[in-house]
Amino acid sequence: MEPKARTTETRSNGTTSDGDEAVALESLQFTDEIHRLISAPSTDNASSFTALLELPAPQAVELLHSPESAKLIAAPAPNVEDIKGSFHFPSNTSLIERAARFSVFAGDSNNNNNKTGSAETTSNNSSQNPQKEVKSEPAETESCQPLVSDPTVEKRSIKRKDREKKVKGSTKKSKTAANESSEDAEKLPYVHVRARRGQATDSHSLAERARREKINARMKLLQELVPGCNKISGTALVLDEIINHVQSLQRQVEFLSMRLAAVNPRIDFNLDSIFTAESGSLMDGNFPSMVMPLMWPEVQVNGNRQQYQQQWHFDAIQQPIWVREEVCNNYITPENSLLSYDSSANSATLHSNQVKMEL
Amino acid sequence: MRSPGSLKQEFLKKWIMGFQRCSSSKKSMSVLDRKKAIKLSADIAMASARKGTTCWSRALIASASKDGSDKHLVEQILGPESERLILMKKFSTGALVCSKRIRSKKILKRSCGIRRTRKCAPQAALASSIAKRLVRKRTQVLKSLIPGGEFMNEVSLIEETLDYIISLRAQVDVMRSLAIASELVNHN
């Protein structure tokens, strides 16, 4: 079944790369469901499709654990043609991530599951803005355009859906559309949600559920961003962690600005003098200092306060106040280990390189 | 996708610009004043690096532009964009009206909710209502942390938090590198 779809894809769509194949396949299935389910064509552009594509992302994680079948989300296929690349298509990684999630979602082989794990972590560590990821979806739908009318794949998707029990409320979906569009801060107008078995299907609860799913999707992203939140379950605790993280970051900004104020008698950071203090091994210093800042967000709190203070003593910096205040956050550790590798002369080099690289 | 490196670059550029404008204005300042100026220019630089795409950045710039003393610094850092961003500030002041509406809605909901909870079974709803109350408290705290957070609904609050955390991280990284580098230069 699967190879057939892939071969039809490759035949009809020679432009997509291998990485996009899974993407095209999964979105194809969605578009076929769309054709089946939605009689009335929606008037929206594919930005709603992007919202729908984005929503199952956290549910794909749930699906890995939950026995209940997938909750598919339909999107308006007829309007795929309307999009003329008005959105960015920044990179393929977000698409591959989404594709990987959908492929888990549709019960594909283990390859895709592995792809999910890796793609998810990499993309979420590098993702800046969920809206950008969302916006990259419509470009994906363009590539799936020629595959929409494939009947064989449609049958397959129907069989897959027979496993699920759903309530189809297409008129109610348009109501949820109106509800969502009014309250949505993003430009994604509406969302089609299929009710699960045993759940209420009136427009209010559908809208509620759609909203809750959106919130859960964002919370998942936040959980991946904030270190140490992955293991925590429960919204309140996760929110606690997020609040602590934001507060610690804000405090760090305060302390650092105080530190900078203390260093200079006037507000004048003489970057030239910093850069002229370099000596010799520039490129050697570059790589570790580039790697270290990238790794900082993933370092967990060790609780090794002894370690912090020892490494602080290795430097020429004598600021016991700042040590006490900054000792409780995670970000000091790799920096201190970085500093401890070198003598103080070289560490000046390293940090000037850091500043230089950030320019 | 915006890379963290380019964000840091932009931030640093604007921050240094802010420093230069700041140092040209006053001759000698106390440590606290300097710290305030540094923090302010860092915040403004960070917010302007987002170029008004996010709500928190607009709110941050708006609140900074409110004071007369900081206003010209803000305008200098922002440069030609300042007019546009201050116009966006007008949108955020429109958010004040939204906040009143939101507050009245909350009062209404609370009054209706009190009636509702008395009707339904206490046992079953107890755990979930406690959880809901906890979550609501946390979201209130989060709203107070994120600049301009009081006016957002939950969905956008979470997105703004995401963006804010990323920006804060970049800001902390750049500031720390600069601090350490300049300290080492000064001590050598």
Automatic annotation (TrEMBL), chain A:
Residues 157-175 have a biased composition (Basic residues). Gene3D superfamilies: Helix-loop-helix DNA-binding domain. One of its GO terms (cellular component) is nucleus. Residues 1-22, 106-189 are annotated as: Disordered. Residues 108-131 have a biased composition (Polar residues). InterPro entries: bHLH_dom (IPR011598), bHLH_ZIP_TF (IPR024097), HLH_DNA-bd_sf (IPR036638). The keyword Metal-binding does not apply. The keyword Amino-acid biosynthesis does not apply. GO terms for biological process: regulation of DNA-templated transcription. Pfam families: HLH. GO terms for molecular function: protein dimerization activity. Keywords: Nucleus, Transcription, Transcription regulation. Its main location: nucleus. Residues 199-249 form the BHLH domain. It is found in: Nucleus. This is Transcription factor bHLH48 isoform X1. It comes from Theobroma cacao.
From TrEMBL, chain B:
The keyword Nucleotide-binding does not apply. Residues 6-66 form the IBH1-like N-terminal domain. InterPro entries: IBH1-like (IPR044660), IBH1_N (IPR059002). It holds the Pfam family IBH1_N. Keywords: Transcription, Transcription regulation. Coiled coil: none annotated. GO terms for biological process: regulation of DNA-templated transcription. This is Transcription factor IBH1.
